[in-house]
Amino acid sequence: LWHGFAAGATTSASAGGTRTLISDDPSNNVTPYIEKLVGRNLHLIPNHPLFIIKRKIEGYFAELGISFEIFDSLDPVVTCTACFDDLNIPPGHPARKPSDTYYLSEGTLLRTHTSAHQSELMRRGHERFLCTGDVYRRDEIDASHYPAFHQMEGVRLMDVADMPAQLSRDEWLASDACARTAAELKGTLEGLVDALFGPVEKRWVEAYFPFTEPSLELEIFFQGDWLEVLGCGVIHSEVLAKCGLEHRHGWAFGLGLERLAMILFSIPDIRLFWTEDTRFTSQFASGEVVKFQPYSKYPECYKDVAFFVPETWEENDFMELCRECGGDLMENVKMIDEFTNPKSGKRSLCYRIVYRSMDRSLTNEEVDEIQFQLREKVGPKLGVELR
Ligand code: FA5
Ligand code: MG
């Protein structure tokens, strides 16, 4: 056993898609495609790569000799208060926009990060915990982005005895204790990366989150490029104050579990985590860390689509429509050309859509049909003018 909480924690994996999340509430923008993913709980399916990596990470923390409580079955439907307000994310912040977030109603949404549980857990008195779950974001389409993915949140409040008493925010930020907290956080996460991967090329990048300061992201070199695997920082005084913990300090992180698992298991495309193809799932049956053996890379083909866009254009709306029409058959959607007509002032974009199935060869006819559907819908739905 990796930790004392494993027993009840792995029982509730459901088939997914069993919950009605779509309604005619004017704020509701959940799509059928997303609704089907909610409840899949990949991180709770024994011997799924996300389950294996979750246990390895929990094992690493157990071995540090400080016990972290494990939460992995909290409801992915949360309030705006939990997901944003409690975390110091102000009204009007981009993360709250319906172009980025799946809302059920004005006040409830599919969590966009596991940080949505930080404050409620701290308020309930939890001081050290790991909280894993599925999170949802309207986002771009490529090998490392998927609209549903999994994060593990880690929070550690420091011992009061080691921390200075009441300081102003500026005094705290300039203090030794703040620097020590950040250093401990970095050391802990570097240790995790070493434990998971051994030596890899990695780098810290300064970041910004409204709920931590200072804030950092860690990137690892993978498939020829830097891949961002986590965000973290020293918990913002205001977040703690909102929990009635103004006398405390600590750190927090959010790991992108798919990204870490892609590196650990050599999984080349994030869509694979969702496949039920036994050529994928059977490779992990031992529950051990093994290198994924690609069963075959089926041929790709691409189609371009170009249109004039309205002022209100949101790229994520187009990404969503692509998912709706092509599901997992679209491997990558990328803008390849942009120009503004100097006379009319109209902006034109051209997107290239790469089609490739993870499981089989696609026929020309089915790709043409998807592309046709997309062209039919994009005008009326997004107000663009096809070229
Ligand atoms: C966050 O979500 C913060 N909540 C992390 C955090 C927690 C910071 C606690 C400070 C304290 P970010 O948006 O960078 O941060 O996402 C965290 C990780 O999730 C990313 O580094 C990446 O590994 C993963 N991720 C983000 N978007 C996607 C996506 N569309 N598909 C797959 N993984 C993603
Ligand atoms: Mg980030």
Overall helicity: 25-40%
Q: How many runs of DSSP E, i.e. beta strands?
A: 13
CATH class of the largest domain: Alpha Beta
The radius of gyration over CA amounts to 22 Å
| Overall geometry | globular
Task: Explain the overall architecture.
This protein is α+β, with helices and mostly antiparallel strands and 387 residues long. The chain has 2 domains: 266 residues, Bira Bifunctional Protein, Domain 2 (BirA Bifunctional Protein, domain 2, 2-Layer Sandwich); 86 residues, 2-Layer Sandwich (Alpha-Beta Plaits), CATH 3.30.70. Helices cover 29% and strands 25% of the residues. The chain contains 12 helices and 13 strands. It has a 7-stranded mixed β-sheet. Helix 3 packs across helix 9. The N terminus is likely disordered. The protein binds adenosine-5'-[phenylalaninyl-phosphate] and magnesium ion (MG). Adenosine-5'-[phenylalaninyl-phosphate] binds next to strand 5, strand 7, strand 8, strand 9 and helix 9.
